[in-house]
Amino acid sequence: MVNQEPKNLAEQQLIQSLDSQQLALVATWLLSELEHRFEEGYRHPDMVWSLAWMSHKLWILSSNKQNPQ
């Protein structure tokens, strides 16, 4: 499911406009945002899940761009 191109047009455009290193950078930034929110004491489950999922998805898409099958 994750390794497929997104169906959302905005996501498709984002993925197509960034190279694998840029996608990895955004994924890392999302994880740092998650860590920052935790340090601030904000641990809302939906926010945690969303940031972790988006980061994971971008790492996989980055990897797929680097190593197309």
From TrEMBL:
Superkingdom of source: Bacteria
Q: Would you tell me the protein name for this molecule?
A: Uncharacterized protein
Starting at the broadest rank, the lineage of the source organism is: Bacteria, Bacillati, Cyanobacteriota, Adonisia, Adonisia turfae
